[in-house]
Write a structure and sequence with these properties.
The complex is a heterodimer.
Chain A: H1 11-47, H2 50-63, H3 66-102, E1 113-118, E2 121-126, H4 150-153, E3 157-159, E4 171-173, H5 181-185, H6 191-207, H7 212-217, H8 219-225, H9 230-263, H10 270-300, H11 304-333, H12 339-359, E5 365-367, E6 371-373, H13 378-407, H14 411-423, H15 427-460, H16 465-495, H17 500-530
Antiparallel strand pairs in A: 1-2, 3-4, 5-6
Helix pairs in contact in A: 2-9, 3-6, 3-9, 6-9, 6-10, 6-11, 9-10, 10-11, 10-14, 10-17, 11-13, 12-13, 13-15, 14-17, 15-16
Chain B: H1 2-14, H2 17-55, E1 62-66, E2 86-90, E3 96-98, H3 106-109, H4 115-131, H5 136-141, H6 143-149, H7 154-187, H8 196-226, H9 230-259, H10 265-297, H11 301-345, H12 349-360, H13 365-389, H14 408-438
Antiparallel strand pairs in B: 1-2, 2-3
Classes of the chains: A mainly alpha, B mainly alpha.
Amino acid sequence: MSTMIIPRPNPLVLLGEVYVWPARLGVELLDLIIAAVRRRREHVLAQSPAWLIAEQEIATNVQNLKTPIAFGLLLLLILSSTFFMANDYDQRLINWSINRIAQADELFSGTTAFYQTLGRDFMMMRARSVRPEPIIRRPLPLSILAKGLDAEMERAVTLGGPDRLGPIITFHLGNPQEVVRTKRLFAPPDFLYVVKIILSLLALFFTFDIITREKETGTLASTLANPVPRRSLLLGRWLGATASLQTTFLLATGLGLLYLTSVRGLTLSGIDWQRVGLLIGASMLYGSVFVTLGMFLSAWATRTKAAAGLALAAWLVLVLILPNLTALAAQRLKLLPTPAEHERALLRAAREIEDEAEAKHLSGFAVPGYGRLHKEVSPRVRAVARQLDDTYINRRLERDRLARQLARLSPVSSFVYVATDLAGTGTAEFEAYIEKLRRARNQYIELADRRDTEISLRLSSQEPPEQQQARLQAALQEFFAKTKRLQQQLHESLIEPRSPRQAIRDALPDLALLFGWNALLLLGAALQFNRYDVR
Amino acid sequence: MLRLLMWKEFREDLFSLRFAILMIVLMGLVGAIMFVLTIEHDQQVQDYTRRVELHRRAGPDIVIVDRPPPMLAILFRGFMPMAPTQIELSASAPPEPRQAVEIDSMEALFPTIDLTFCIGVVLGLIALLFSYDTITGEKERGTLRQMLAHALPRSSILLGKWLAVCGTMTVTVLIVLLMAVALAHFLSNSLFSLTRGELAALGLIALTSALYLSTFALIGICISALVKRSTTALASTTLIWVAMIFIWPNITPYVAARLTPAPTYQQFARERNRLDAQLTHELKARHARGAERVRRERMNREQALRVFEQIQRAWEREHKAALTQLENAFRARLWAQERTGMWLASLSPYGSFLHAVTALSDTGLDADERFRKQARLYDRQQEVKTITSAERHKPDLASSFTFEATPLRERFSAAAPPTLILILYNLGWLIASTLAFRRTDVR
């Protein structure tokens, strides 16, 4: 009986099969995809030569090292920017949390002097103790990307007047929390800054020679000898340059964000991610403006050298000079009083009312630095001061709005406004912030007015002095408790930023403007290139 | 031969179209800048006089001293917009600087530009534009070979070109400065007049600017000798320019924060407030002990008052000394960080230019420190007076403080190290460009 020998399968081979099979499947799938892409590509290329030209442009940019250099530079800058700005944010967060903890510290808050009884005499103990630090606003995480006015809004706010302003109530912004002066001399190197300065310059490098280069090598004439319409050529080049720039930018930014979220542990909510997405979109739109501008200038110039000079000059004017000049123009067009002048006007208005009261022989007492103060007219003084204060603030806000309108002359300012608005550190947020301060000030004035009327009512009643004293004390205690609650409420509302949806809505007009710039420049380039002498 | 070459290049630069366009742009820019800066300066001068007037009537136990705006801040703002303009002195606390606080969102987003920007940024780029094609341009036109075919040493070609660009830039800087001074003189209401010392400082600023621009001219020439095509030269010089002006100086404060860390303001404030609370408790206890003593020894009113006055005075001195010590420690660490930042920034020509110009125009960190120091000194002198005479901080005492600007010699010595860095830069790039040009393929 012969036995059939069944070959035993080699386990190693089996194991190999298990692994090779999916790999084979993968390769086949890849083949399929490549074939589909190729077919698609041929289909597209048959429709318009622009795609071919775009491909060629992308390849040229890689070959002449423009894309690698741009990628290296952007990556280096974005990574170092996120590193340093995240450090800065951490530092500011520490600053804020210490302020938060310190609120619970036992201090001699508000007490600057107290008395000690000594027989019948009062003995005064003077302790001009340091005021406790008011609550400061929590820094926003998106300020890592666009710091904007975040540091301005971080200042400590107090309600009430400094001692020498008597009954006048306003809000006071403290010194900036950032005490290192060198940090405030140069603009913070955040993502916004890198995009504003570097991305625009790189965009111009990609396109300043896009037409003149071909003309100088003589390929432009031979390309156009084929049945290639000029607009396809232009569009193809534009697409190629845009793709080269935007992919490098997106890659570098993606790595920067990856660093922030993985290494630095930055956590963002869904709506914040939307903001970041829009911010990146706005940056791409901004970069695209300069890509188009470079192409426009290239279609304008006859030689590469001239195009390069033109592009550099345009960049200098648009990025560095125009935004600052429009700010200067707004300052000049709407001249404002300085803070000291404003303070003087407040005091003068108060003085007039007090002098009137003095003439009527109302009872008063002297306050150092302010003069004689009459309790009866204090509400009126506050009302007048409030009005003066409001006109002053309104004029400042109007100037800011005018500056924003004027700044729209340059796409750079539009971009800065869009980016800061999206990050919640822009002018719209700042206006809302001032509005909150104003509302709290009005509530404070109301409280102070009520206190004054109550005191005068109680003092006039026919009660024994001890009881009067006690009730007065109670009224004052209540007032202090209420004002304390008010300050607390104000600070809680300040910490709350505007809703992201609102921020996105604020940014829309300027985003539209960036679109408009793109369209306009593209149209200009097309018109210019149509009549371009290719010889 | 060198002179001939230089003159030829110099004349070519001066009468070129790009120089004419540059002049028009610069005039517009300087005009706009001065138009606004004179207003700002006038307002600051007016503010200063008003503040002095107001502060003479300040409270009985606070004295406020003020700093006038430096004269040259009208041209170079430097650190002045963020420096405190007044300092409050009190008996029991260290001097407290106050900054003019404005509700201003414009300044934070688009800072006001001044002549530092005009010379440092715009003219820096222009210097590059005049020099990036000095060698590649001649090579592309084919004239470089012809020149070298004559018995012309390469070094004199290089020197001639460099000196010509330097000359052009010096002329431009002088025109800009003259125009700015003239505009300041005519537009300002606050009698803008320069003393002889300030004129000397301005002259030195012009010299520093020329040195700074010469660095960029040399960078342009060196790159031009290294690369083959003008376009490549322009692209690479522009990137160097951006790195030196817009990247390195902006990063340095953050690098300095890593190298020499300092506590944040709130960390300091919390420590200070705790110390203050502790000391105030101590005062309360001392007063209680004093009251006990008064009761025990059956003092009359006069004696009791004297006892309490003594307690109060002694405590105030201790309190002030303790807080001052704490604050000095904090400020020393801040100052170390700021200095590190400034020196790191000075590693780029723009940083050292800024350093030298702010030192010369008395608008730098040193000027701010000087004001604080003078206020401290005044405070100490006042204390010596008040403790003996018991006439502590009478209102009219505030008027006796006058801020003394930095004397010229000190400004020069402060500006010397950054200027030296600029000179070293020039030397380094000169050697580099000589070496590069020696190996340049002229075909």
